[in-house]
Structure formats: structure tokens, C-alpha cells
Design goal:
Layout lengths: L6 E5 L26 E5 L9 H4 L4 E4 L17 E4 L9 H6 L3 E3 L6 H16 L2 H9 L19 E4 L3 H9 L9 E3 L5 H6 L3 E2 L2 H7 L2 E4 L13 H6 L5 E4 L8 H9 L5 E4 L19 E3 L8 H19 L16 H11 L2
Parallel strand pairs: 1-2, 1-3, 3-4, 4-5, 6-7, 6-9, 7-8, 9-10, 10-11, 11-12
Helix pairs in contact: 3-5
């Protein structure tokens, strides 16, 4: 047995079903093999917001869907880290984590390939009218097929909002399709850096007016909330498609509904919504020019394995006194309170 101090790693309750059995085949615990000082436990139940009594004496928590608020962290003196199972962290109060001397971690890079593939799949499904053509066969409307002529990706223009890892992976996947030079809008990049990533940096208005596909890959924050509203949708080509695999709230759903219903854009593919989870049919589902998914379009066995391995590795490194990558509040490592707690928890 290891002589290291015990490190308790907890997983939120939504990693398991009502019967207590794992929902997913592999979420990366193999990374912890041979490190007996790390003890994995599961929350007894799923709650939409994590409560302190669920955390208990855990030193790290890997979070799938619950929100982490300031109240979640009250009375948890041994908690070192909250690790999001993914890259989005709008459901984590990062400022509260910092104030409580807790590092907030994400799995940077682990989602890039799967989300890029999913976006590409949706681009092809939209342009080839896959949903409509499937319905023709199911409804016995063979002779109506001429009304659904598609188009190729060739000679079309991709516009990426947020040129992070997913956007770069998407550009790379599309290299063999004969598309025009990709456009990117990202206020945190300069033109030279964007060029190195294979895209031309432009303003948001120019991207919306020029792109045949507007694909959103930016985080949700106060700068991006309602970034795409009625005015922005009006700038898009009537044949263009909007794809959002990032976060609900970046696109104004009411404005998108009206644009799609009025055929003012070609169509859309939406994986995320302003209010989640949905508890009933969404009004976008009334329309035939939109594809929808319950915030899981990129979920694959490989995705969950890779995210899980990275999340577990980060917690393991923390338990060994190493600074893990993926911290969204790296300044916490310099706080006296965190350093004292870290040393006390791992015995350093």
C-alpha cells in the first residue's frame, strides 16, 4: 500500500443511473491504477446544484452536469479542486472557487476531435437534407425527392466564432473538402495567430455576411451572451446555416426561431439551449429546417474516455503535489490559503 495520505476523489451522481450502476463504459479511472492513495467515491444522488453535504470530506470532485455555486463550497475545508468533465465552465462559480481556495479545472483539448467530427456531420446532414430525405421514404413520398436538392461543401465558406481547439480541429478536418479559406471571429487572437491556425481573422459582421456555415465554438460569458440575435441573423445569407455546439444563451432562441420559420437563413443545427435540461418539446422542433440534439451531439465512447483520463490525471497530479494543467483560476495556486491546504491534505 502507498504511504501517501489518502486523497478522496468524488464523482457527481449523474455518472451513475438510479440503480447505482455506471452510465458510461469508460470515464478514465484506469489512470489511477497503482495509486492506492486515491480513493474514488460517488455522490449518493444527483442534484442540479452540488451541496456541501455531498462533498463532505472529498479532496477533489469531478463534475458532469451539476452547477457549483458559492453555497456548494461552504464548510468543505479539505476540498482542493473541482474538475469539470469537459471544457465549459459556465456552471461553475469560478470566483467563489478562488475565494474558497479551490482550483477549478477543465479538460483542455480532450473534446476537440469529437466535437469537430460532430459539427462536420451536421454540416453534411444539413446540406444534403438527410432529415427530409429520410422522411420521404418513411412517409411514402418518393416522387417528392426533386424538391430536396442538396449542395456540397466544395467552394463554400466556413465561419468559426471562437477559434479554440474545437474550431482548429474542425478546420483541419475540412481540409480535403475543397472549401474556401475559413473565416474566424475571435477577439482574443491577432491576424497572424489566426493565419497560423489556418483561418482569416475578420470582424463578426463580415463573418456573418460571408460564411455559408456559421459554427459557434466560444464559451458562454457576459461578452458572448446573446451574441447572435435578430440583427446578426439578418446579416447571414439566406442559404447559410448556423451551428451551435457550444452553449445555450449565445444565440437568442426567439430570434433564431423567427429566422428559421421565415426561411431567412437556410437552416440550423442546435445542440444546446438557454434552459437545460429541456422538460418538454422545444419550439424549434416544430420546424423542418433545424436539427436538434440534447447537448450530446459530440458524445462518443472515445470522448468520455479521453475527458475522464484527463480529469483523473489532473486530480492525480494534484494529489502528488504537482500543478495540473487546465486550471481556469491559476492564481489560486499562489494563494496562501490554498498552499496551506494543499500541503495539509497531501502531507507536503
Amino acid at each position: 500500500m502507498s504511504s501517501r495520505k489518502r486523497f478522496c476523489l468524488a464523482w457527481t451522481g449523474d455518472f451513475q443511473g438510479p440503480d447505482g450502476r455506471p452510465r458510461y463504459r469508460d470515464v478514465g479511472p484506469s489512470v489511477l491504477a497503482g495509486h492506492d492513495h486515491v480513493e474514488c467515491v460517488a455522490f449518493a444522488e444527483h442534484r442540479p446544484v452540488i451541496a456541501p453535504d455531498q462533498i463532505g470530506g472529498a479532496n477533489g470532485v469531478i463534475v458532469l452536469t451539476p452547477r457549483v455555486t458559492a453555497a456548494s463550497l461552504i464548510g468543505c475545508p479539505d476540498l482542493l479542486a473541482v474538475g469539470r468533465f469537459g471544457v465549459g465552465y459556465d456552471g461553475v462559480d469560478v470566483a467563489a472557487c478562488t475565494a474558497a481556495d479551490v482550483v477549478a479545472l477543465i479538460t483542455t483539448g480532450a473534446v476537440d476531435r469529437s466535437m469537430a467530427e460532430a459539427t462536420l456531420a451536421w454540416m453534411l446532414a444539413l446540406t444534403h437534407h438527410v432529415r427530409a430525405k429520410d422522411a420521404l421514404v418513411r412517409q411514402g413520398k418518393w416522387d417528392e425527392r426533386s424538391a430536396f436538392m442538396g449542395c456540397e461543401l466544395r467552394e463554400r465558406t466556413l465561419g468559426v466564432i471562437g477559434l479554440g481547439g474545437i474550431g482548429r480541429a474542425l478546420i483541419e478536418l475540412l481540409r480535403g473538402f475543397g472549401m474556401n479559406e475559413p473565416l474566424a471571429y475571435d477577439p482574443f487572437l491577432d491576424a497572424g495567430k489566426a493565419r497560423e491556425m489556418g483561418a482569416k481573422l475578420v470582424g463578426l459582421g463580415e463573418l456573418l455576411a460571408s460564411a455559408d456555415f456559421v459554427s459557434i465554438h466560444c464559451p458562454l460569458n457576459e461578452r458572448t451572451r446573446n451574441l447572435i440575435g435578430a440583427g446578426e441573423l439578418a446579416k447571414m445569407k439566406p442559404t447559410a446555416y448556423l451551428l451551435n455546439t457550444a452553449r445555450g444563451g449565445i444565440v437568442e432562441e426567439g430570434a433564431l426561431y423567427e429566422a428559421l420559420k421565415g426561411r431567412r437563413i437556410g437552416g440550423a443545427a442546435i445542440d444546446c439551449f438557454e434552459e437545460e435540461p429541456l422538460r418538454g418539446p422545444h419550439r424549434l422542433g416544430e420546424l423542418d429546417n433545424v436539427l436538434l440534439a440534447p447537448h450530446c451531439i459530440g458524445w462518443t465512447e472515445e470522448l468520455f474516455r479521453d475527458i475522464g483520463r484527463m480529469a483523473c490525471r489532473s486530480m492525480l497530479e494534484l494529489s502528488l503535489g504537482k500543478r495540473p494543467r487546465g486550471a481556469v483560476n491559476p492564481e489560486v495556486f499562489e494563494r496562501a490559503g490554498f498552499r496551506e491546504k494543499w500541503g495539509r491534505v497531501i502531507g507536503g
